[in-house]
Amino acid sequence: MSQKFVPDENEFARPNSEPAAVSEQDVLLVTVVGSPQGVRETILTLYRLGFAKVGDWSPLQRAANPKQVMSVLIRRKVRSTDSKPPAR
């Protein structure tokens, strides 16, 4: 029998290895691009609003424009069971 068809006995012992757990999450990337001061101020503002901790953001990195930097926040969000689009 081919090895790729042999079930992994520890498959469900590992968190996040179950296909259902992965498929029920969205991975969201939030990117802030601008001057170093502007990016830092925006991250602090989002922290004050309770959006994300300052330490959750990536370190400042160079952006495409040499005068700008960027920082990225990765969020994992559980998908809503209600798949209807929001009412307008």
Descriptive overview:
- The protein is an alpha+beta fold and 88 residues long.
- 20% of the residues lie in helices and 25% in strands.
- The chain has helices spanning 19-23, 36-48, and strands at residues 25-34, 61-62, 69-78.
- A hairpin with a 6-residue loop joins strand 2 (61-62) and strand 3.
- The longest helix is centred in the middle third of the chain and has 13 residues, at 36-48.
- Residues 1-8 and 10-17 have low confidence and may be disordered.
Helix-strand makeup class: alpha+beta
Care to count the β-strands?
3
Could you state the oligomeric state of the chains shown?
single chain
Terminal residue distance: 55 Å
| Strand residues, percent | 25-35%
The helix content is: 10-25%
Helix and strand element order: HEHEE
Indicate the low-confidence ranges by residue numbers.
Answer: 1-8, 10-17
In what order do the strands lie side by side in the largest sheet? 1-3-2
Largest beta-sheet characterization: 3 strands, antiparallel
Number of helices: 2
Layout of helices and strands:
Blueprint: H1 19-23, E1 25-34, H2 36-48, E2 61-62, E3 69-78
Antiparallel strand pairs: 1-3, 2-3
Summarize the structure.
The protein contains two helices and three strands.
Task: Pick out its properties.
three-stranded antiparallel sheet, disordered N terminus, elongated, 88 residues, alpha+beta
